[in-house]
Amino acid sequence: MSGESRSSDADLSPKSLLAAYAGGAFPMADVDTGIVEYFTCDPRCVIPLDAFRLPHTSQRAIRASLFRMRADTAFEQVMRGCMLPRPGQERTWISESMVEAYCKLHELGFAHSVEAWLDDKLVGGLYGVSLGGAFFGESMFVLRNAGAGNASKACLHWLVTHLKSKQFALLDSQYSNSLVLSFGGVEIPAPEYEARLAAAMDLDVAF
User: Fold this and answer.
1) Residues 152-183 as b or e (16 or more Cβ within 10 Å = b)
2) How many CB atoms lie within 10 A of CB 115?
3) What pLDDT, on a 0 to 100 scale, did the predictor assign at position 54?
4) How far is CA 60 from the centre of its chain?
5) Is 136 helix (H, G, I), strand (E, B) or coil?
6) Alpha carbons 204 and 207: distance in angstroms, whole number
7) Helix (H) or strand (E) segment spanning residue 17
8) d(CA 18, CA 24)
9) pLDDT at 59
10) Phi-psi region for residue 144, left (φ > 0), alpha (ψ -120 to 50) or beta?
11) What does each C-alpha distance from 203 to 78, 97, 133, 134 come to in angstroms?
12) Which domains does the chain have, with CATH numbers?
């Protein structure tokens, strides 16, 4: 992966995780070895809250859906949904040690989940970390075979609306990809990201 740096040893204690996020780093597990390391990236992808958008077809589908949206009621279940390998993969960058570490952050009030439920079944969700007015989005999942193809997008829409209502200033998506860019994501250089992060973390707001 280009534009990234690694630490030599990953400590996933709450103190170290929060310090990493405050410094612009985030953990990922090697898909082959399962070893967790910290990464940064330059450029950095963020989703400006006022520029967030969804395709019209997704907007219509979400409005017509029967999803019940919740937050922080099934954090570990959401993480394990995100942990499921995609087609053609044997494992993902989310390791068992990361699930344990983020569940501790959730218990401390720093990690959060957004969930889409359909007929009392969790069919999609996302999770991330909040510090001050910054939210670091980590991963999303959807159970497409449950007839819920737009569930993860519904979660992201809910998250953006919630962050705006709480006066958050930064939604960090870390690496860019075509999906994030389709939501209005933009790439910014590391110095600009660091300035935005510092300003967001100074805000006295809460998730």
Assistant:
1) bbbbbbbbbebbeeeebbbbbbbbbeeebeeb
2) 26
3) 87
4) 24
5) strand
6) 11
7) helix 14-22
8) 10
9) 80
10) alpha
11) 27, 31, 5, 9
12) 43-201 (3.40.630.70)
CB 130 within 8 A of CB 138: no
Q: Is the peptide bond before 191 cis (omega within 30 degrees of 0)?
A: no
Determine the Cα–Cα distance for residues 32 and 21; give it in Å rounded to an integer: 24
100, 82 contact by CB (below 8 A) = no
Residue 15, both tokens: 């103190």
Q: pTM for this one?
A: 0.91
Q: Mean pLDDT for each consecutive 10-residue tract of the chain (207 residues)?
A: 48 97 96 90 97 84 83 98 81 92 98 95 97 98 78 94 98 95 96 98 97
How high is the pLDDT of residue 15? Answer: 97
As a whole number of angstroms, the distance between CA 93 and CA 90 comes to 11
Tracing tokens 């990464």 back to the chain, one arrives at 39
31, 78, 129 from 86: Cα distances, Å: 12, 15, 23
